[in-house]
Design a protein that fits this description.
121 residues, mainly beta, globular
Length: 121
């Protein structure tokens, strides 16, 4: 069994990264290397991880396979934060400031169909 781990580095060690580790804590494998990465969320089936990265200059939502492969940027506007998978794994909810204020959005797991759910005050 594995879990996603967000590591808080010491200043001499570099940036925030996402790791996978076994439940006993004996084996740890780094999944991300570019930019600052965090706010990781496992899909319910354990096959994919949604996360936030600033690797392209602004916090955006990405997904990757559970082994760290297939890292793909899903959001292009924003900054965007706090990805959460739907129970069926078909959609991802997140928050973004793309329209000026912090709002809740939802999108398909491939990044298509991004829709704002809340209205600015």
């Amino acid at each position: 069994m594995t879990h996603a781990l967000q590591s808080a580095p010491r200043k001499s060690q570099g940036s925030w990264q996402i790791y996978v580790f076994d439940i006993q804590g004996r084996e740890r494998r780094r999944l991300t290397t570019l930019g600052e990465n965090g706010e990781s969320a496992w899909s319910r089936d354990g096959q994919r991880i949604a996360f936030v990265s600033d690797r392209d200059g602004l916090d955006q939502i990405y997904v990757m396979d559970a082994d760290g492969g297939g890292q793909t940027r899903l959001t292009m506007e924003g900054p965007s934060y706090s990805p959460v998978w739907s129970p069926d794994g078909q959609r991802i909810a997140f928050v973004s400031r793309r329209d000026g204020s912090l709002q809740i959005y939802v999108m398909n797991a491939d990044g298509s169909g991004q829709t704002r759910l809340t209205a600015p005050p």
